[in-house]
Predict the 3D structure of the following.
Amino acid sequence: MPKRWMMVAGALLLLCMAPQAVMADAESMLTLTMGSHTPRGAFSGVAESGSMAGLSAGYRVTRWFATGVDFNYFGSSGTHNGDVITIDDPGTEKPPTVTLVEKWAVTNLGLHAKVFVLERGRFAPYLRAGAGTYSIRYSQDVSAASSGTTLAGVEAASKAGINVGAGLRCRVFGGTSLGFETLYHQIFARKVRVNLLTTGVTVGFGPTGN
Amino acid sequence: MNGYRMTCAAALMTAALAGAAAVPVFAAGSSDAAGDILKRGSQWMSARAGYAKASGGEAPSGLVGGGFGYRRFVLDKWSVGGFVQYELLGRFGDAAEIAAPLTLEVVRHGRWGAAVYPYTGIGAGVFYYKRYRSGADESGFSPGRYLVCGMQVPVRKQGLLGLDVRMARVDRLDEGPVFSGPNGDRSKIDDLLVDLNCPTSPDMPLLFSAMESKSRTLWSVKLDYTITY
């Protein structure tokens, strides 16, 4: 058996052996998420991997189900960022040679639902799904140019999207918890698939950790 | 004209709220009941009407909007609601622009003193837009998100009157024969996602002097009447 599967099996065994938690429902929690994102699908051809940050407010309706709202930011540079090219600038007579600055930023505001499975002791694994609006923003600028240029601009659009994933939360003390979460985002663009795979460390603050 | 209209609308709403604030005498006997309206399980039905406008230097003057919605308190002081609204954002001559937001929102409610209920929250949804009699009519749906805040006072048993202010962020529509906006022939996000997937070359899509915002804000300030049960 490969080493990684042995580690997964060991982790699951530990979860199963841990004492059953006595977790109450009707609890609320704020969660901060910091991590990275990796573009997938056609988006991987135009954007590099980058960082992410998120804030969510959740409420545990029952012992096994929670829901909430979240706001996330995903930022990265474009695949052409830092490239040096000579361009035909309609605003200047002499073609300048420029160093491109290319950035992508995606913000997400949405609702999510979590289903807790195999909860044992301090550990609460969960599956998660959500939906919301995604705002995609692309910008071009120059960091250096051989002569004056009018190259600079932004383009933005709002799209609908969904996300699914899983995470693990470990109660540290009181209502504070640490964990990690990975999500796969599907943004519904018109011509291509825009996907993001995000992985982050979560810090939760709440009465007992939901 | 626009400023005059805004001033009139603000004065009207201030007067209505001032009148409403004087009424709690009616509601004084039911202050305990009023506190219960923020409890988990409480339900609110709202109808509202007032001012609506799109941001932008050359946007049409703001006009009117209305709508209705439903809230349910999933926690004490926290509600989840859905709203449908219809807003005539403005006219240029015969040409008109409307928006119809269909939205979900999560709102935190509070209570100041005996009978003032402020609230603030966030929401998102689908915004139907339409331009007509403009020479190049268009319509469609666009996702949007918004911030909302407001304040309500009881005016009768199970009845609240208030002011609802919301600021929605949506995509800016392309320019048309009447309405201003970004050039519709430019490379948009959907085009850039395809065309930028290429080796760097002078032929790759480049944006020149295109710093203008591609999104806009839809404002609305409305009088709100809510029935609680």
Q: What stands out?
A: The longest strand of chain B covers residues 138-156. Residues 16 and 223 of chain B are 9 Å apart (CA to CA).
